[in-house]
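Hi all, long-time lurker, first post. I run a small reading group and we've been trying to get comfortable going from sequence to structure in the token notation. Rather than ask abstract questions, I figured I'd post a concrete chain and ask someone more experienced to write out its structure so we can walk through it together at our next meeting. Sequence below, copied exactly:
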Amino acid sequence: MNAPTALKEFLDAQEKKTLLRFLTCGSVDDGKSTLIGRLLYDTKLLFEDTLASLEKDSKKFGTDGDNIDFALLVDGLEAEREQGITIDVAYRFFATDKRKFIVADTPGHEQYTRNMATGASNSDLAVILIDARKGVLVQSRRHAYIASLLGIRHVVLAVNKIDLVDYSQKVFDDIVADFRAFSAKLGFVTEVAIPLSARYGINVMEKSAETPWYQGTSLLEHLETVDVDAALTDKPFRLPVQWVNRPNLDFRGFSGTIAGGRVKPGDTVVVAKSGKASTVTRIVTQDGDLPEAVAGDAITLTLADEVDISRGDVLAAPDARPAVSSQFAAHLLWMAEEELLPGRQYLMKVGTAMVPAQMSALKYKVDVNTLEHMAGKTLALNEVGYGNFSTAQPLVFDPYRDNRDTGGFILIDRFTNATVAAGMIDFSLMRATNVHWQALDVNKDARAAMKGQRPVILWFTGLSGSGKSTIANLVEKKLAAEGKHTSLLDGDNVRHGLNRDLGFTDADRVENIRRVGEVAKLFVDSGTIVLTAFISPFRSERRMVREVVGAGEFVEVFVDTPIEVCMQRDPKGLYEKAKAGKIKNFTGIDSPYEAPEVAELNIKTVTGDTEIHAQRIVDYLRDRGYLG
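-- Answer (accepted) --
Happy to help. Here is the structure in token form:
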């Protein structure tokens, strides 16, 4: 057989093999990296130069004397090698005669739980390693729970370092019983326990004589035969539109990767949001048109009709449409150092769609050791919670348990663009689908015309003692003298009624501003000029209020007074109490104030008097037509 023919046959054989994506996880020093290194070594997928480098690194960084330290094959970062820990997620490919594999080596430290979650989100099976000497640890439970939460339904409990407990069956049985008492609530479809030693290859590639009491298969044999097919091709058709392909006037296609089901020319599909239907005319790929495409295929569909479709839309089967809602319940894994604040706006990305969103209510946090539900107002790094979410526009989704691609989302910080959380949608909230805007005959423009003015929010922000309330009060008096319709919402006053149930934690401050913003919007809808005087220390919440009203209906007034001056004034004695520790979470002392980056008006109260400042604000309104 000539070389080209042999190569073609080899490639054809590889293409027909199934692919298993799995991850190794568990606590620190359980041997995750060593196990992957052993698999790569024993499947003979290492080049000679890699082996030579491994032998050299083992002498410098290794932990097994003169022997090869297999962990160094995947711990690629210098910091990982020096500390002997895994920090980042490392992906490796290997293959046997029966199957291809992509394995993710994930960190064991709690502080890198978010990295482990990243690996789990793309995996079909989890190998949870447990040190036979230590048993089931907190991090073992944490990783098992997160694996379950992220949709993994197949688990291998790898009791590693069995050689260090004299291959004891009792130790193995006790660990398995302990783990299964916890995992019984997690809904795994398969759960196979294997005693092994990654360092010495015991029960890794084949059954070993050292554990005659173990009647199961080796790890590799199980990985080669376990059936993890999620049957995505049997699920309803879903195509999140990534791009509208319009190379010329004669072609208009909708590109994306199929997230579920199958499609062929002649099938009817609908745009999930609008319900508009059309017929598939072609399935276009770089290699030519296809007679059929299935889940996982990257394609471009052309339709028989001119249907309004854009990036973020989802094409779906007409008889099994996904949910379309702006409110839903979901689990959330928080992945940022700065805590989650319910009510704060983030960007939510579901499939190819991205919209502003917020957690409207945190129902509970999950104790990953016991799976018990705990009360809480915020989520800290690596904590898991469950709550209700609200989005600025309706989103298309399936429950995460039905489709990981259309039911998973990430949250993005609007200022840093950092990914701060991963979420799994549970179900749509009923009130999201049966509550609709009521059309009103007398609208905002009509109310404003009756008052002879344009509605606006004058949002005064600044430190305590800067003079916000004083200036806002004087501005309202001047407007009232001109016969204008106004209302003033003051920070202290609303805490006697509307917000009397709120404290001064960051989470309560966010909710305080959210409520005030909604009330201020109602005043704007009534045609009123509304003034608000709040410290409102966070830019994200001030931006949130700006975005709930129309263009030109929010004017930020930064009462710019240095904290030293505010502390000298201290009209209520609050700074002295805060410095003495009698008041917690006080802005400027033990809670931050984020000054506006670009406010419409910047009022420096160190110079000039309140009369001049107030008149400047009134003149601003008059010059821009707010006073009629």
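A couple of things your group might point at:
The two ends are 90 Å apart (CA to CA).
DSSP finds 18 helices and 27 strands in the chain.
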